């Protein structure tokens, strides 16, 4: 354990013992003095804990120092409790051999590292078997510590049992590996250490390393296999403390070192690597201590709600347009990247030291007998430099190294990677303008061998950010919201990998349209570069699409693109959100929506490029963001736009389309044996817009549903259809139309846990409403449980009949969102557009999501006298974007200035967070008092 300053300020062991002895000296039965003893120990622990916390928080202490101090405090308490038990509770003169006891710290406690609220892991070590005396001592110590409120994990074993179990159990072996003598019989502990070294460690080094790496990989897989998730687990996540512990375990097992720094003296790692290890560990420990103190319990997940406060405590302030919390998290991701670098280099060194050859790909076997390839030598089946000055003599080799590794499926030797890191300054403007370097880079970016691999390696090594400085600005750049899961650079590299999978046909079932058209793209260079650059200007304070388009104009010629290709890349970056915004926020059944979209896109080639870019972008945001519903909307928009570009929709007049739809339905109904009167009666129920808004299958389902409802004079008919392909459930409601109908239905769905993603509201000529809703569950899947669907139908019926008041029912659910969601402030915004549709006013609402929000805003629309034609609902983490196509009570667009102002104010009030309203109300009341 490192030096602990002013130890007595943490715990004065002699003073505590003196107080305990005074209690023991009193003529009081043992069971009656226990309370006094417990109070003394609690006071000592509470005082020491407070002193350590004061040093850490008030004096800006380091995490490494704090965990050592907590360990020191517990060490002293364990020793005090043991000695009191031996001397005063179970005093015994001469002990037999079997009554000796050694107290051993294991696990993190054994490393002398203890976070504020971590468990205390103890091993009570016995010579060969348990005795009544040793059991009394152990029991007394454990119950005393538990009563103090400490979390103690323990085991009681003999030396033989420890050795036997360590051979068969990796967890026990690891715990014993970092064991530390604490108190009691030291000879017993020494025997354990000797036998552990001779009987467990000897000859099993390679197997232990492989087992720990497999354990690490499984842990990463469980916690999302990326170190760039935005709410990381700083202990168990990739790039966290546990990865550093894994390096320590392997080093200690193989080389019997007590600390990683000792490996420098043995020539196994460099001084720089050891310093990076210590720096990363200290920073992560500091964050973890802040997390524990802030939560008041053991907590290792760096969630959105604690990130700003910990960033503030660690003195990360707003700077140059970047928020303090974003600077803090960027530092975290850079530290996690360092941990990844150390892991890769150290594991490669261990592999070489232990003479265990890595597994080779089939492609790599071709070069097994070759000593050199593309100016590099093959060293241990890895790509290595021919001399240590190679990169200084030939800076282009810094790019060629990754190009060669990708093309020949080779790993890069850790020595070469170390030299890359040392010579990053060679990547200057001269190299960036080098024609050969840029050619190699574009070949990697557009490689058929998965460019994600090369780009990830280049990014990890720091080369990508130096070669393309604009990309360097987004390395470890977080996006502080609940929608994006990865940092900007990680999202971009994943998007490149997804684009490669689309090209290879690996995502045909999830993205059929993109998979079909990607082969028709005329320039792969345009496509891949646009994906690389689409978010490159994030975090600069302006519109990242506009700024990114400017970057593309400068970078395209440098990378060898023609003027036409450069212009197309710039256009794609500028408009990379156009297709998703149109598909998810506009009514694509409205011909003007398609016309406006086509007016911007202009050409089939841009349409193809934009579709594939959009799919790659959305899929790379994070798990569960992409689904069949979004795929279907993008696919439909693509084909409708393609049809209009080829003249299909332009020549298909409105009347002709209506007649075509009706004739097709007439044929289907005749096949179902409907008589002519029934058919004509049904065809008369729909306005022209109805016949153009639905496909033939939907029109047939509606006809059956309406006919059945009219025959039985049913006041309410509900039909559900699960579309597993789109991951949605279509719910169609046929009932009498009245103001507030949409709001009542939305409220009933919110109560039932259904999320509306799209809605089409139709009023028939007979005054009945035919409303179609596409709904999902909370996880973005189809709302398909039969019991939940039955309950939903009942809830809708109760809401429409007035037996259920959605507003009152939802009031108690306003606070049901996770606490971390309330960290994000989303300013309510109402955008009113009278140009997006020829027949409706389009209203876009932005606000923070909450239960019942859709009910609140649609209720406000009812009060404002608005008729909803369709609704398109999108949620981006904590932000909701709802778009409504509306008319006034006369069926006209809303164009009067006063009415527009009323609508805007009314909807802003509905969007406002109830919690903020209550807070303002209580503040006003307090001010009045």
Provide a concise account of the structure shown.
By secondary structure, this protein is an alpha+beta fold. Mean pLDDT is 87; it is low at 356-365 and 922-929.
How many discrete structural domains?
Answer: 5
Contiguous helical run count: 44
Q: Largest beta sheet, briefly?
A: 8 strands, antiparallel
Principal-axis shape equals globular
CATH architecture of the largest domain: 2-Layer Sandwich
End-to-end span in angstroms? 57 Å
Oligomeric composition of the shown chains: single chain
* Poorly predicted regions: 356-365, 922-929
Q: How many whole angstroms does the radius of gyration measure?
A: 34 Å
Describe the structure.
β5 and β6 form a beta hairpin. The two termini are 57 Å apart. This protein is of the alpha+beta class and 929 residues long. The strands form 3 sheets. Strands 9-10-12-11-15-16-14-13 form an 8-stranded antiparallel beta sheet, sandwiched between helices. The protein has a 4-stranded mixed beta sheet with strand order 3-2-1-4. It has a 4-stranded mixed beta sheet with strand order 5-6-7-8. It is globular and about 110 Å long. The chain has 44 helices and 16 strands. The protein is 57% helix and 11% strand. The chain folds into 5 domains: 7-202, Beta Polymerase, domain 2, CATH 3.30.460; 207-353, Nucleotidyltransferases  domain 2 (Four Helix Bundle (Hemerythrin (Met), subunit A)); 360-467, Hydrophobic Seed Protein (Orthogonal Bundle), CATH 1.10.110; 715-811, ACT domain (Alpha-Beta Plaits, 2-Layer Sandwich), CATH 3.30.70; 816-929, 2-Layer Sandwich (Alpha-Beta Plaits), CATH 3.30.70.
